[in-house]
Design goal:
RmlC-like; 2 helices; dTDP-4-dehydrorhamnose 3,5-epimerase; dTDP-4-dehydrorhamnose 3,5-epimerase activity; five-stranded antiparallel beta sheet; binds dtdp-4-keto-L-rhamnose; about 180 residues; six-stranded antiparallel beta sheet; RmlC-like_jellyroll; mainly beta
Length: about 180
């Protein structure tokens, strides 16, 4: 298992060690001990899974403190462009977005810390996405940012006019008007 740093502090890509043989492959998608050895000490309490069709865009979402969530995101089937936006007001990369292709094939995981908004677009025919969270879902603490906020300039890898987006996500505010408390 190894960690790839990104240009945003604390936002890392985790690459598991994959053991292949004639049957297929095996890897540890999460190990508390191995994550601890890499300096990541997180108590995950909820696992989520979603399935989406090509062209779906979910996000950008966060939960405000004291219900903020760290998310460890991976793809079980298909390919997504996974995006995290730094919302930490005292961060030198506040308002910057990082994107990475996560797929069932590359088995990469994005560790999205508390203080970030998260979203993804589906670039394969379908995608099953699973993510661990270190805080429970709390509807009242939910916040979001509009995926096409021009100040974020995110390349979602698709024509946004045709994106499949929930009603809730279509009316999210721009980052400058969002209610984030980080
Ligand atoms: C996120 C969540 C939703 N739900 C319910 C609420 C709603 O009825 C239904 C669908 O919720 P949403 O439309 O918010 O699902 P979705 O748009 O997939 O929301 C998710 O998007 C990605 C990008 C994230 O980062 C997640 O944290 C989460 O916000 O599921 C839960 O019961 N528990 C949860 O943890």
């Amino acid at each position: 298992m190894r960690i790839e740093e990104t240009f945003i502090k604390d936002l890392v890509v985790v690459e598991p060690t994959v053991f292949g043989d004639e049957r297929g492959y095996f890897f540890e998608s999460y190990s508390k001990v191995k994550f601890n050895d890499l300096g990541i000490n997180i108590e995950f309490v909820q696992d989520n899974q979603s399935f989406s069709k090509k062209g779906t865009l979910r996000g950008l979402h966060y939960q405000n403190p004291p219900f903020a969530q760290t998310k460890l995101v991976r793809v079980l089937e298909g390919e997504i462009i996974d995006v995290a936006v730094d919302l930490r007001k005292d961060s030198p990369t506040y308002g910057k977005a990082f994107s990475v292709l996560l797929s069932a094939e590359n088995k990469k995981q994005l560790l999205v810390p508390q203080g970030f908004a998260h979203g993804f677009s589906v670039v394969s025919e379908t995608a099953s996405v699973m993510y661990k969270c270190d805080q429970f879902y709390n509807k009242a603490a939910e916040g979001g940012i509009k995926f096409d906020d021009p100040s974020l300039n995110i390349d979602w890898g698709m024509n946004l006019e045709e994106a499949i987006v929930s009603e809730k996500d279509q009316v999210l505010p721009l980052i400058e008007n969002c209610n984030s408390l980080f």
